[in-house]
Amino acid sequence: MIKVYDFFSGCGGASSGFQKAGFEIALGIDIDSDAAETFSQNFPEAAFINKDIRSLTPEDICEYVDKESKKLFCGCAPCQPFSKQNRNKSGDDVRINLLDEFYRFIEFYLPDYLFIENVPGIQKFEMGGSPLENFVSKLKECGYRIKTQVITASDYGVPQIRKRLILIGALNKEVYFPAPTHGENRSQPETVFSDWVYELPLLEAGETDPDDPDHCAAALTEKNLMRIKATPEGGSRTDWSDNLKLDCHKNHVGHTDVYGRLSRNKKCSTLTTKCISYSNGRYGHPVENRALSVREAACLQTFDRTFTFAGKLGSKAKQVGNAVPPLLAYNFGIVFNEMEMSSD
Question: What is the pTM of this model?
Fold first, then answer.
C-alpha cells in the first residue's frame, strides 16, 4: 500500500481522494490550526504537524516516515501568489518559494511518487521567474520522471469550471495522466450543481442546520437580501432594477459573476476561499435566497457529506475553497496504483 505524506495539506482534500483510491494517509503538515483540526478529525489514524514548513527540517518528520513502504509526497502549496484573482502580487510574498521548501523533503527521502496541484499561473509568474521551472529541473536531477499539464476538473467529474496545473512524478516509472472521464464523447456526462447538492434542509441566510453545523449560510444585509430575491436562477446583477445597483457597477459591464446565482443544471464557477460570500462571486444559491452553505460548497468540491470542518464560518469556507477536490485526487490515485503495479 502506498502511504501519503500531505504537505500543505489544508483540510485534507487530496488525502481524502487518495484514501478512496486505497492509500494510507500517514502524515499531514499545515500552518493553519483550523485546517489541522479538520484534518485530524477526518483522518484520526494519521499524524499531523501544525507548523510552518519553513521551520521544519527533513529530520523532524523521520518518526512518521516509513522507510520500507512506497511513499507519495503530496505538495499543494498555497496558490494565491500565482492566482489571476490576486491583483496585489508581490515578489516579496514568502509563499512563492514554498516549492523549494517542499523540495528539501523530496531530496532527503526520495519518495516513489509526487503529486502537486496549483493554479496555471505558477508557470508564468513574472516576478523573478517561475518557481516551477527550477523545481522541475531539480526533480529531474534526482531521477524523477515528470509530467505537467493544465487540466479542467470537470473532465474528471468535479462540477466546476476549475482549471489547475498538475505535476506528477515517479522514480523508475513512466508517468501519465488519467484519461478524462466526463464530458462529450466520454463514458459519463459532465456533472452539474444538482448532481452534488440535493436533499439538504432549506436554510435562510444566517441560519445553521441543527443536525449539520457545516450546513450553515452567511447572513445577508437587508439590501443584499433584496438583491438576491431580484436575481433569477443563473442570473446576475444585470437583472436588478437601478435602485438595487451599486454605484460602482452602474457603468461597469465586467465581473458579472459578482452577486450572481448558480444554476441547478450547470457547472459552477471555480470555488474560492470566498465561496460562501454572495458579493464575492457567483455563489448565490440557485433558488434559496442566500449564498452557498459550507456543506453545499464542500459537496461541489466533491467532499463526502460525512467530512466535517473545524473553525468559524470564514475559516471553513477558506478550507473548502483551498482544497484539492477529492474526486480529482482519486482519479490520480488510480493512476498511481496502476504505475505501482506496472513492471517498468
Answer: 0.91
